Amino acid sequence: TGSDIKQIQSRNFADAKTLQSLYLRGNKIHDLPDVAFFGASRLQTLDLSDNAIATIESTAFKRLRELKTLLLGSNSLTELQPGVFDDLSDLERLELQQNGLGLIDDRLFQGCHSLTALNVSHNALKTFNVAQFERRWSFDLIDASHNKLSVVRIPPNLRQLVAIGNGIRTVESTATNGSELILLKLPHNKLTSVDEVPVFDKLITLDLSFNRIREFDFRSAARFGKLVLLKLDGNQLESVSNSLTAPITH
């Protein structure tokens, strides 16, 4: 870490057969060549954050089938090659925040059969298909904060979604038979009503602070049967009502 390394060559790790963790954070690495970590097949944690990586060859992570954590945050990536993560079948945590990614192809994560935590915050994404992570297992967390998203579609197996500081106007659910979502954080977006959020039956925390909500009826919150925390600060509310206890008129 922080050793001013500028380049990785394909056979640098040819004899690293027992290596399980590799930390290269804070260097000046600018690209990852084909089979960059050849020989380090038992690697489980790889930290390449805070470098200057602009190019990753599609086979750079080939044969790293035991890798569980890959940190690529704070680099100079503007695109990712198709198939670059295809060999990472055991990958659980992937960080891509603070790059310059404008597009992430839906097929990019098809080989990541164990992925449960993904950070794509602080990029330039105008679209990001969160619903592509609809899988048989629970997906713990996606952070898509500080991009340029206007729509998010939430799959039933996602437990936590954080998407602060986008331009989100629409929230959709792909669930047809219940949802695992327990936390939804959408501050600093463009939502105009709590009713624009679909019903998530296990939701505990809903953060809609600093949106464009001007009216609030407690009936909107009552739709979420397990909701414990609702944040609406910074919305310039003009009226708050409680039609749940209002007298019935004929």
User: Distance between the terminal alpha carbons, to the nearest Å?
Assistant: 72 Å
CATH class term of the largest domain: Alpha Beta
Number of domains: 2
The CATH superfamily of the largest domain is identified as Ribonuclease Inhibitor
**What is the 3D form?**
elongated
Helix content: under 10%
Main sheet summary: 10 strands, parallel
Summed up, the helix count is 1
Mean pLDDT, all residues: 92
Record the strand order, biggest sheet: 1-3-5-6-7-8-10-12-13-15
Structural class: mainly beta
What's the number of extended β-strand segments?
16
Radius of gyration, whole Å: 21 Å
Could you state the order of secondary-structure elements as H and E? EEEEEEEEEEEEEEHEE
CATH third-level topology of the largest domain: Leucine-rich repeat, LRR (right-handed beta-alpha superhelix)
Runs in which pLDDT lies below 50 for 5 or more consecutive residues are 246-250
| CATH architecture descriptor name of the largest domain | Alpha-Beta Horseshoe
Approximate strand percentage: 15-25%
Keywords: Leucine-rich repeat, Repeat
Organism: Anopheles gambiae
Protein name: APL2
Pfam family, one: LRR_8
